[in-house]
Amino acid sequence: MSTSKKIRRRLKKFWPDLKYIWLTDPVYKDTPLSDISKALSLWEGELKKYAFKKNIMECEEFALFCHAFIKQHQIYNFNDKHNWCYGECIVSKLLGFENVHSCNLFLTNNNIYMVEPQTGAYWEADPKLDDVFFVKM
Description:
By secondary structure, this protein is α+β, with helices and mostly antiparallel strands. Helices cover 32% and strands 31% of the residues. The longest helix is centred in the middle third of the chain and has 19 residues, at 59-77.
């Protein structure tokens, strides 16, 4: 388990310029990568329901729906006492490409991962390639 204070410190250490961190719970569960991986593989199947629509269904909606899907997966499939360290974020750079984009992120015991909600792909975050300026969990 991680307190909001601990998560905030981890995120600030990883991205020192990160100012906007909204953590809505006092404690979160450091989720095993295998649980998140399984949930994201199920999310990939859900993506068939959604189609990109300019100004209506863009990256911020995909990030929101992916976040909600992961939360529902946890609620209905696990008997956890705390929410997973999974949320939405806004970046100014992702995988080295500079562009404002909404996506998701999660924390395990040791690492921070980025998630592209429009594909379900995830990777270990790299502060040189991924620049996050807003987080909400």
